[in-house]
Amino acid sequence: MDYGPVWMRRDYWESLCHRWAIGPWQERSHAAKHNRVAHPKKNVHTSGLVSYATHSQKLRHELERAPTFRELFDRTHKQKGRMTMSVRVLETYDRTMADRYEEGTFQPDLDPEA
Question: What is the pTM for the complete model shown?
Answer without folding.
Answer: 0.42
